[in-house]
């Protein structure tokens, strides 16, 4: 069985987006290199440094399913029905998107809570990894002991306020192993395995 990986870009002061939910400078590093790549959607290319491309390619090839919350699903309009990473998306929501135009054809599943979403994602992923979006859903998964690894793309910016990386209230005290560090341009990739 693969890992459950909480993955997102974050600011030095611990935010994954501004108060208006937009990433601002947190995604600038997706356009500052010479290597063009995508995750699973070839229509969404980005350009990163060689170091970042090698790191992301290694991580992305292991991902089978992504878990996100309804807020991110709504902001992106469900990525037009195409998973941004992996082959399937599980959305945590109490409001299934019955009127979403891609509902009948997109590889998206809707789950009522984080444990159910992670469980379904693991079934769908098989021996591949599951990524979980940071924020409220990622924080709930971490607090519930469902996350094996945190991958933080640390961006050298202070946002001052916004959406916290681990959601409202933050996680309880959790210890991690020493990080793997990959330096990109305007981003430092940090990989922390949860200490068991």
TrEMBL record:
Gene3D superfamilies the record matches: Dihydrofolate Reductase, subunit A
Domain Bacterial bifunctional deaminase-reductase C-terminal: 4-176
Domain of life, per lineage: Bacteria
Organism: Geodermatophilus arenarius
InterPro entries from the UniProt entry: DHFR-like_dom_sf, RibDG_C
Pfam families per the UniProt record, alphabetical: RibD_C
Name of protein: Dihydrofolate reductase family protein
